[in-house]
Amino acid sequence: MSTYLFAKDLISPSVASELPKGYTLRPLQKSDHAEFLSVLTILTKVGDISFETWSARYDWMAARNDEYFVIVIENDLGKVVAVGSLIIEKKLLLSPLVLQVSLHSHTRALSNGDEVDSIRNCAAVGHIEDIAVAADQQGKKLGLRIIQALDAIAQQVGCYKSILDCSEKNQGFYEKCGFKLAGVQMAHYY
Ligand code: ACO
Fold first, then answer.
1. Distance CA 40, CA 44 (A)
2. 4-50: pLDDT as tens digits
3. Which ligand 1 atom is nearest residue 132's CA?
4. CA of 181 to the centre of ligand 1 (A)
C-alpha cells in the first residue's frame, strides 16, 4: 500500500501538468529513503542515515502532516529526481491581510462571514527548505515546479508568505520563481 506523508490533493494539478512527459509530482513516501537522500547529496553532506532513523523521522513528520510538507518529482522511470520541503510556522500575530480586513471592518459592515472568522486566525509563514534537483535533471524547470508546488501548498494551508535562505549563486533562480531579496540570513551554530 502506498501512503503519503500528507494529503496528495494538496499537490497543484496545474503545476503537475507543466512537468515533462511521464514525470510526476507527489508527497514523500517512506519508501523514498535511498533515492531522496541521493538527490539531497547535491545540496549537502547527507551522511549514513539508516532506514530505521529515516523511518522514525518520517513517522514524526507524518504525525504533523499539517506542518511538514515534503514533495518529490519522479522521472518517467519512476526515480526520484527532485525534492523540496515546506515547513509551516504558526505565529502569534495576525497576518497583514487579516489586519487590513480587521482595520477596514471598523468603518463598514463585513459582507462576508469568512472575513469575521479569518480575523480570529493567527498568521502562518511557510519556510522553504532543502530544494534539490539531480545533476543530470537540472535545466528542465523541475526546480521551478517544486517551488511552485510548495507555494501552492503554502497558500492552501493559509500562509501569507513563504521565505527561504539561499546562497548568492541561487538568488537568480529564486527570483525566476517569484521571490525577492528581503533581509539577510544569519546563523548561530551550536
Ligand atoms: N541562477 C540563476 N538562474 C537560475 C539558476 C541559478 N543558479 N538555476 C536555474 N536558473 C534559472 C533557469 O535558467 C530557469 O530560467 P528560465 O525560466 O529563464 O529558463 C529558471 O531559473 C528555472 O530553472 P529550473 O530549470 O527550474 O532549475 P533547476 O531544475 O536546474 O533547479 C536548482 C535549480 C534547484 C538551484 C538546482 O540547480 C539545484 O538543485 N542545485 C543544487 C542544490 C541547491 O543549490 N539547491 C538550492 C538550495 S537553497 C534552499 O534549499 C532553500
1. 6
2. 999 999 999 999 999 999 999 999 999 999 999 999 999 999 999 99
3. 39
4. 16
Give the cell for residue 28: 514523500
CA distances from 81 to 49, 50, 106, 129, 190 (A): 19, 20, 51, 16, 32
Planar angle of CA 136, 30, 141, nearest 5 degrees: 30
User: What is the residue with the minimal CA distance to atom 51 of ligand 1?
Assistant: 129
Atom 15 (ligand 1) nearest CA: 176
Amino acid at 96: P
Residue 145 has pLDDT above 90, yes or no: yes
Interface pTM, i.e. ipTM: 0.99
Q: Which residue has the higher pLDDT, 92 or 5?
A: 5
Quote the DSSP letter at residue 53: H
Tell the residue nearest (CA) to atom 8 of ligand 1.
Answer: 173
